[in-house]
Amino acid sequence: MSDKNWAGNYQYSARIVRPRDLDDLREIVTRAPKIRALGSRHSFNDLADADAAGVLVSTADLPSEIRIDAESRTVAVGGGVRYGDLTRDLQSAGWALHNLASLPHISVAGAIATATHGSGDRNGNLSTAVAGMRILTASGEFVDLVRGDPELAGAAVSLGALGVVTQVTLDILPTFDVRQRLFGGVQWDVVLDRFDAVTSAAYSVSLFTTWDEDTVALAWLKELDGAETTIGDDFFGAPALTEPRHMIPTMDARNTTQQLGVVGPWSERLAHFRFEFTPSNGAEIQSEYLVPRAQAVDAIRAVRELAPVIAPVLQISEIRTVASDDLWLSSAYGTDVVGFHFTWLRDQAGVEAVLPALEAALLPLGARPHWGKLYLDEDAVVPGLYPRLDDFRALAERFDPEGAFRNAFLTRLLGSV
User: Fold this and answer.
1) What percent of the chain is helix, strand and coil (3-state, nearest 5)?
2) 77 and 59 Cβ atoms separated by less than 8 Å
3) Which N-terminal stretch is annotated as signal sequence (predicted)?
4) What are phi and psi for residue 42, nearest 5 degrees?
5) Cβ of 204: how many Cβ atoms within 10 Å?
6) I need a surface site. Which of 9, 80, 202, 332 has the fewest CB within 10 A?
7) Where are the alpha helices (DSSP H) in 80-175?
8) Global pTM?
9) Would you call 315 helix, strand, or coil by DSSP?
10) For residues 87 and 97, is the Cβ–Cβ distance under 8 A?
């Protein structure tokens, strides 16, 4: 039965099946001519889809065992497990992950497959925590990769091209506490002139704007409890807020994780949204472009010039930072990056109408689109932004020589098998 993604802006072409164990999964995978794994359905494009003759395998009902290894400081978790469930188990056992994305509702395998990230100058994306993986290939073979295997850097951000990720092993660290503080009205001159100081002021800093305003509407700081800070009652002149805020002013702040400096565990602070609430009804489309940090200020200036074009279809935009890594298809491969995230109205035609101007401004600066968000790349610039793309193409062909996991998205990126 066909269905839509979480946002409702994309209709899947292939039928969806829900195997309940690995034997069922293996039988489905080995029989299907075309197949793709489907996690929490938070991709906004055709990345997760298969053609009409293929099958989409939902990982939601697969084994969800979570095994902590204190000696190696790792946790092994089923690929379909959501981060919100994983964080609860880790916290209760005294452990933590280094960072979380805005939403804890996303699946582990889906998030790492697309280099999904949180924020923080020194924090790598979620894929950088991968210490091992188990992948079911189209031949029905389970392939294990562990740290030290040269292929792990290629497989960690796989776009689903290698097979179904049934288990992921992640690095963990002792639990820690975090507080969140919000500040309103950061001057644009401060952001442009002191960008490094602004983003390094806390463990994680996010700036929220609609681009057409006189100041940055909201600075959202996540600070480690006990860490030294130079930020008092104001943030570079912007006053601390005294009431909780959703980043979209018209939405209910109860959906967000606790603010106003109340200290709590990492599992209840690093994500922007509470796991027990749905952050919105999904009536949105998302795009994101990750720009090399050296080009961040130029990118901010360029997007501000486009404010009259993008504001009519924009709900909110977030600026945040991600540390560099060596994962082949990571948007932060080889360079620290700054993410420019756009939460649009659910107006597919309207958003696609403004993306060419936005991409004309950002792609020449080396911006890499988030793999799971909506982007166009009309001039096929994106493949050239990944120096290890040929290596990944060869890896995908070794894992999947018949192209069972190759779909339209991957064909555009890698070519046909």
Assistant:
1) 25, 30, 45
2) no
3) none
4) -95, 10
5) 26
6) 9
7) 83-92, 108-113, 152-155
8) 0.96
9) strand
10) yes
End-to-end CA distance of the chain: 27
Long-range own/partner contacts, residues 84-92 (CB < 8 A, 24 or more apart): 84/271, 84/275, 85/275, 87/266, 87/267, 87/275, 88/267, 88/275, 90/66, 90/172, 90/175, 90/267, 91/175, 91/265, 91/266, 91/267
CA dist 379 to 269, 368, 410, Å?
40, 14, 16
Phi/psi at 411 (5° precision)? -65, -40
- Do the beta carbons of residue 338 and residue 296 sit within 8 Å? yes
Task: Say how far residue 237 (Cα) sits from the centre of its chain.
Answer: 31
Give the Cα separation of 232 and 44 in Å (integer).
39
- How does pLDDT run across 287-300, given as a tens digit for each residue? 999 999 999 999 99
- State the Cα–Cα distance between residues 343 and 138, nearest whole angstrom: 35
Amino acid sitting at position 127? S
d(CA 417, CA 414): 9
Q: What is the mean pLDDT of each run of 10 residues along the chain (417 residues)?
A: 83 94 96 94 94 92 94 97 97 98 95 97 98 97 96 98 98 98 97 98 98 97 92 94 92 92 97 83 89 98 98 97 98 98 97 98 98 97 97 98 96 92
Q: Which domains does the chain have, with CATH numbers?
A: 15-58 (3.30.43.10), 66-175 (3.30.465.10)
d(CA 190, CA 192) in angstroms, rounded, equals 5
Query: Each residue of 36-57: pLDDT tens digit?
Result: 999 999 999 999 999 888 999 9
The two tokens of residue 213 are 């305003």
* CB-based contact 130:170 (threshold 8 Å): yes
Chain centroid to CA 230: how far? 30
